[in-house]
Amino acid sequence: MNAPLFTEDLKLLNGNHAVAWGVCLAEPDVAPVYPITPQTPILEKLIDFESRGACQIELLTPESEHSAMAAAIAASATGARVFTATSSQGLLLMHELLHYASGARTPIVLFNVNRTPAAPWGFWPDQIDSLSQRDTGWVQLYSESPQESLDSVIQAFRIAEAVNLPVMVNHDAFYVSHSVEPVSIPDAGMVRDFLPRIPREIQLGDGTGRSLGAPIDQAAWNLTRREMDAAMKRVENVSEQAGSEWERLTGRPSAPLEFYRCEDAEIVYVTMGSMSGTVREVVDLLRESGVPAGLLKVRLFRPLPVQALRHALAGTSCAIVLDRNYSPGTGGVLHQELKAGLFGMENPPRVHGMLAGVGGVNVPVGSIAKLAADCRNAEQTAEPVWVE
Amino acid sequence: MNKHPSPLWTHLTSENRMTGTWRSALPNYQNQPSPCLGACPVHGHIAEWIKQVKDGDVYGAWVTLTENNPFPAIAGRICHHPCESACNRQHMDETVGICSLERFVGDTALAEGWQFSAPPTQETSVAVIGGGPAGLSAAYQLRRRGFRVALYETKDELGGLMRFGIPAYRLARSVLDGEINRITAMGVDLHLGVPAVDGAALETLQNSHDAVFLATGASLPKRLPALDYANPWVVDSADFLAAPVSEQTDRTGARVIVIGGGSAAMDVARSARRLGRSVTVLALEPEGRLPAQRIEVEEAVEEGVNFVHGAMMKSAEALGSGVVLNCVRVDFEPGDAPGAFSVEPLDGSDFELMADTIIPAIGQDADLARWSGVLDAKGPVVATGRDWQTSKPGLYAGGDVASMNRFVTQAVGMGKEAATAIAAALTPGDARPPANGAAQVAYDRINIAYHDTHGRNRQRNTEIEARLATFDEVQQPLGPNEARSEAARCFSCGTCIYCDNCYFYCPDMAITKLENGYVVNSDYCKGCGLCVAECPTGSIHMREDTSS
Asked: Nearest CA to B130 among B395, B393, B383, B373?
């Protein structure tokens, strides 16, 4: 049915269209989506695919993101595979139902294009929209490139359906969403095998006459969170396995954490999303000048793979966290998370929190490289530092 | 994973959540009076019978209507319809055409030949004196309750003012006869053409009946002091209206001046126009303030009646073959009660009018002299207390003889109330039902989102030329579709229409449907008030719930 669209292996695609290709290959049953800049090309491309018969998605266009998520939850509870996409204000409007989706254990995949929330109004790459949703019970992945976004959205369905938790995949507005790169399109049959349909134990409409989420007492509610906790604890392994299998199938590494020249690195940059590409160049330049630097790219932010992080940073003396987000009153969210993740570690690295690229401002190679010199022998501070 | 089944999927429903414990207020279904009901002289359940019309149950509507008024076809033509002035719908677009709907129901009943049923006649007997609207209404209500009724009327025909005061072009005689015959068919002992009942006759009737209802109307014309009624060119308005057309023709010249501004004056003026006369109405009140209904004045103007407002006649004298009226402009001050007003002539504003006939129509007085010393009077009417009982125990009075509210339907209402009181007095242990003391439903209680804007379905009038050629009815009835459409405009204020909005909107499923209404389950109602907000008719209200 969709074979004609997949005859070419490599295509020039922007990040959003790459997501739509990934979604199409994942074959969701239902996709309620409300348009918003800079997410809209995902929706448009899906409509294009659907109208041409390339995929069989029930596309719903409700009147708001809140309703889109409500529809997504209900559809998912019936056992359907469900996708939705949004950005910034739209994600924030969904907030109430983000909790509901995870609480109802609906394995929805949401693609969020990271964009500054108002006020003031802006359309710029900044991850605070999704990072501020970190306590809603969603698994969060961050992507650096169109190819990674395609790969991640497919893996997201695998993770979500393995643990019955919703997964949010994020990429930066414009830097990824609208940047065109060659993207390898995986084989449809291969993706189908990668994402087998797992029958749900219970689903709405299965004839058992059960209620989903009926009012329960305190202890029973408490139990639901313990169950979510157990599911969250499985996410790291599940995504590790999904990544390994994806690497075997496509040759593209897709682990929860990605390391670049971290062996014997004295200085390790830690970041997420599009910033990683710039840092890779910085690492090369520093290495050329004899500075032992490396990059740790966090793909799986929630749950943060704490043990893997501690293992990776053992022996490193200096970690520089680059946050393209700002949580007023504390600083960078990844900075906080990393500090917490390393708590109690023997001989931990010094952790330097850098607010770099907040609001989508450009962070040039030189600025990042200079941080190595500034931090290499400096004391860490609790306060975040605004990178000029 | 834990060994327990997940509490996310359960066999629970919201039934295990007693949300009623959150409540501080509880909805209360209460058929509150609609403003029309409050304004209606017979206290008719208007919202109820209009809904029956809307539902296509015209017979049911007639049954509901005639609980309070045996004359829907008559009232639907001539009632001054204070119900429409009170109608909540006027705040949205236009009042509901209640009167035209009443006529539709009444006409349908006459066409279908629907009859009243009367229970077997008891031994208890009531005498009704006067066969006008009040007397007939009382006789009807008493017969419905099984009482023996003897009705005494001085004229040879029943109807009183409805027959002898209201011209046929407003109330066709076939309609009048139809609705009166339906009452007499219930078994009324009729005594027509009897002498006027004086004090001694009252005494006799009281002795031979268990109760007496006096409804002799107001038969004495008020007299203008400045006018010599012995003149051949002066014709009394009551005599004129009661006379057959041939006699009306004989007694009027080419130029008629009618003195007065009430309904009777309009009836005289418009009747005279139908005789081909040139007609001028001379009224004390300024333009727009006449006591007649606005529509009557408008139709009189359409029919070519001239009006001289804010003026009075000082004297009249024959001049040649005609009469000259010496008039003066006046300053008119209305009083607090009907008929209580003052006028101040304006110096230097004298003028003359020429006429061939003068017909004064300035009102009627009750003839109280015949009961002097027998019955107490209160001003110009028989004094009555609560329940329309006079100073003589067992003797009740209503209609124009006992009230200055001189409208046909007011008289019908008084007849009903007096009959209800008589029935209660004559039936041991039968208390009168308490009045519904709840407040009337205000416009802001109606959820107008459920009511589309829709102008009123208007009755049409016969073309003016055709009107002047005969005494046929001017106002044409609504057709069945128009009536249904007009009935659908009713908000049904305070009257549940069983739309199920409360049932569907209740987020706690706390409302149960019964065969004829709803009940709130207080275990679950959390007092949110959605049912009240979504009620299109204002039939539910929240009351504070102080129960623990």
From this structure: B395
Q: Note whether A214 contacts B6, CB cutoff 8 Å.
A: no
Instruction: Please determine, looking at this structure, whether the domain spanning B125-219+366-426 carries the CATH number 3.40.50.1400.
Output: no
Is pLDDT at A133 greater than 60 in this prediction? yes
Q: What is the pLDDT of residue B435?
A: 62
**Residue B432's pLDDT is what?**
60
A151 and A226 assigned to the same domain: yes
Residues of chain B with CATH 1.10.1060.10: 35-114+446-487
Name the superfamily (CATH) of residues B35-114+446-487.
Alpha-helical ferredoxin (1.10.1060.10)
- Cis check: omega of the bond before A120, within 30 degrees of 0: yes
Q: Is residue A198 less than 8 Å (CB to CB) from chain B?
A: no
Distance CA A11, CA A20 (A): 13
- Taking the Cβ of residue A230 and every Cβ of chain B, the question of whether any pair is shorter than 8 Å is answered with yes
- A226 with A104, same domain? yes
pTM equals 0.72
Of B1, B4, B12, the CB nearest to A216: B12
Domain that holds residue A147: 3-250
Mean pLDDT over all residues of chain B?
93
Q: pLDDT tens for residues B23-56?
A: 999 999 988 899 999 999 999 999 999 999 999 9
Mark whether A352 and A203 lie in a shared domain: no
**What is the total count of domains within chain A?**
2
For residue A383, the cross-strand partners are: none
Name the residue among B403, B398, B443 with its Cα closest to residue B139.
Answer: B398
Partner residue opposite A216 with nearest CB, options B1, B2, B10: B10
Under 8 Å between Cβ of A215 and B526: no
Low-confidence ranges of chain B (pLDDT < 50): 1-4
A271/A130 Cα distance (integer angstroms): 15
